[in-house]
């Protein structure tokens, strides 16, 4: 096999595999190295895809158990078959990872299985499962090694009683009591899954808010909804220790204000306190500069501090750790390497929490705008006043649009609704085109749809909503 490439990509997650495909489309001879058995990275194997499969199945189970009866759908005996649910998830993961293999073949990308390490500006070593090392030459090297779950100091994840998100996606039985440390995206999605399947779930979060990065009123409404669903919250609380005792675990925590100490004994503890960039001496000994969070520093062209070496995705110091951000960077860096003008607009990256209802956000929050001294106006419209949401019994939540007080340009949007993750795309498009709230208010939205609430929220900015 010829060992010379125009580009070698390390990591076949959404950043790396998308980058490889775009490079190949642009005519560059490309190889992609992956140390996992399957392509697709965290996202397809232990992230977005398996979590969304379990969120979907568990929500259907919950609806069949608790909601169908009210709709006149009388089902006699609802029984959970967890191993079948897990098999369905595994089948979806397998189909999608095989799909990436197919796309690699279709685009004539060389797939190198093993661990990649960068020897020099133009040489990458691949160590295969048996320890055999092979060197490959590349004019361009793209690091897309992603991220790994992190833990708290002195808390060791053993994937038995103390688990990471990866463990929480493959439990063999439903834990009676589950403690989730961290009230962020991943912690809340997995709390929802196991709550619906029967666990008694308690979320312990250091901040006074769940998902502290979103607007405070959105966080407060989301908390109200999840509490109503039966998830317990211990906010403003610092976990001081997590111990495993036989088949149980004990979580100790202290309230930040009152200093009151509490402990919970449970079957499983899910540690969901964030993810760390996956870059270390085993990947390269070259002097690639990192920021204080140990993320790779890149410039606007995704160049690292070392010539010919680029980086994208979760491992870099730009944007949120999200699959679609990694994909867009993969496309942009491929186009830049090919001499085109690749670009990612970090001001317009949607983020979605796939609970029920979903929470979708994009752009700036009120707190950020206050900090930047930008005057803004807010339009809000509740789903309680949206006809489609009403007939579907999906009245929780609202659409909130924030626009510049002078120019009326849309600066940020939050949506809490069953379809929020899909609905936010309209706002991403509007913001990408520099739309004003008036542009959205004057755009015809089909009736009856949840999206009419977007139009009404835009109209609310000018205090003229029709249905509220
Ligand atoms: C439970 C969970 C749910 C999530 N849900 C969502 C969601 O709904 N939406 C969303 O946008 N994001 C979600 N994410 C985040 C998303 O998975 C990541 O942002 C995304 O996968 C990052 O892509 P990446 O290509 O940068 O890295 P990764 O997907 O982490 O891929 C990196 C790949 O590089 C490989 N690798 C690392 N080092 C080497 C090496 N030296 N040699 C060869 N290969 C190597 C790894 O094995 C891995 O396969 C979720 C994450 C988790 C954990």
Lay out the secondary structure.
Elements: E1 4-10, H1 14-25, E2 30-34, H2 41-46, H3 48-66, H4 82-106, E3 110-113, E4 115-120, E5 123-127, E6 133-143, E7 147-149, E8 162-163, H5 165-168, E9 177-181, H6 185-196, E10 200-204, H7 216-228, E11 232-234, E12 237-245, E13 248-255, E14 261-266, E15 268-271, E16 275-277, E17 309-311, H8 323-337, E18 351-353, E19 358-363, H9 366-371, E20 376-382, H10 387-391, E21 398-404, E22 410-417, H11 420-432, H12 437-441, H13 452-461
Parallel strand pairs: 1-2, 1-6, 2-3, 6-17, 8-15, 9-10, 9-15, 10-11
Antiparallel strand pairs: 4-5, 5-6, 7-16, 12-13, 13-14, 18-19, 19-22, 20-21, 21-22
Helix pairs in contact: 1-8, 3-4, 3-6
Bound molecules: flavin-adenine dinucleotide (FAD).
Q: What does it look like?
A:
- The mean pLDDT is 97.
- The chain is α/β, with parallel strands linked by helices and 468 residues long.
- The strands form five sheets. Strands 1, 2, 3, 4, 5, 6 and 17 form a seven-stranded mixed β-sheet that branches.
- Helices cover 31% and strands 26% of the residues.
- It has helices at 14-25, 41-46, 48-66, 82-106, 165-168, 185-196, 216-228, 323-337, 366-371, 387-391, 420-432, 437-441, 452-461; strands at residues 4-10, 30-34, 110-113, 115-120, 123-127, 133-143, 147-149, 162-163, 177-181, 200-204, 232-234, 237-245, 248-255, 261-266, 268-271, 275-277, 309-311, 351-353, 358-363, 376-382, 398-404, 410-417.
- Bound molecules: flavin-adenine dinucleotide.
- Flavin-adenine dinucleotide (FAD) is lined by residues 10-16, 33-36, 41-43, 47-48, 51, 115-116, 144-147, 165, 186, 278, 283, 313-314, 321-324, 326, 354.
- Flavin-adenine dinucleotide binds at residues 10-16, 33-36, 41-43, 47-48, 51, 115-116, 144-147, 165, 186, 278, 283, 313-314, 321-324, 326, 354.
């Amino acid at each position: 096999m010829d060992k010379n490439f125009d580009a070698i990509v390390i990591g076949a997650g959404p950043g790396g595999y998308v980058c490889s495909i775009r490079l190949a489309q642009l005519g560059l001879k490309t190889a992609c190295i992956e140390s996992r058995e399957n392509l697709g990275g965290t996202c397809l194997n232990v992230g977005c895809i398996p979590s969304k499969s379990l969120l979907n199945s568990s929500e259907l189970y919950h609806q069949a158990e608790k909601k169908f009866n009210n709709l006149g759908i009388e089902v006699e005996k609802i029984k959970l078959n967890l191993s079948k649910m897990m098999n369905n998830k595994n089948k979806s993961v397998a189909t999608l990872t095989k799909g990436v293999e197919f796309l690699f073949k279709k685009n004539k990308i060389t797939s190198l299985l093993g661990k990649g390490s960068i020897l020099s500006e133009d040489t990458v070593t691949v160590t295969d499962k048996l320890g055999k090392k092979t060197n490959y030459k590349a004019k361009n090297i793209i690091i897309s090694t992603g991220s790994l779950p992190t833990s708290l100091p002195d808390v060791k994840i053993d994937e038995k009683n103390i688990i990471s998100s990866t463990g929480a996606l493959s439990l063999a039985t439903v834990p009676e009591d589950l403690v989730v440390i961290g009230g962020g995206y991943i912690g809340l999605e997995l709390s929802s899954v196991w709550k619906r399947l029967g666990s008694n779930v308690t979320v312990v979060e250091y901040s006074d808010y769940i998902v502290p990065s979103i607007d405070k009123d959105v966080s407060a409404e989301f908390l109200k909804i999840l509490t109503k669903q039966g998830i317990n919250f211990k906010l403003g609380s610092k976990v001081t220790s997590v111990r495993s005792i036989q088949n149980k675990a004990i979580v100790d925590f202290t309230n930040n204000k009152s200093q009151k100490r509490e402990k919970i004994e449970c079957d499983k503890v899910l540690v969901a306190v964030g993810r760390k960039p996956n870059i270390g001496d085993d990947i390269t000994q070259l002097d690639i500069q990192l920021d204080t969070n140990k993320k790779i520093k890149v410039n606007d062209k995704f160049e690292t501090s070392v010539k010919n070496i680029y980086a994208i995705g979760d491992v870099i110091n730009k944007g949120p750790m999200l699959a679609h951000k990694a994909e867009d960077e993969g496309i942009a860096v491929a186009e830049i390497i090919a001499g085109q003008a690749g670009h990612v607009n970090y001001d317009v990256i949607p983020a979605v929490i796939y609970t029920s209802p979903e929470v979708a956000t994009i752009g700036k929050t009120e707190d950020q705008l206050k900090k930047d001294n930008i005057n803004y106006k807010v339009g809000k419209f509740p789903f309680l006043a949206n006809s489609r949401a009403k007939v579907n019994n999906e009245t929780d939540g609202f659409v909130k649009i924030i626009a510049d007080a002078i120019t009326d340009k849309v600066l940020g949007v939050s949506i809490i609704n069953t379809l929020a993750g899909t609905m936010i795309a309209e706002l991403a498009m509007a913001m990408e085109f520099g739309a004003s709230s008036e542009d959205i208010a004057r755009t015809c939205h089909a009736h009856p749809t949840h999206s009419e609430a977007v139009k009404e929220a835009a109209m609310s900015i000018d205090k003229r909503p029709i249905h509220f």
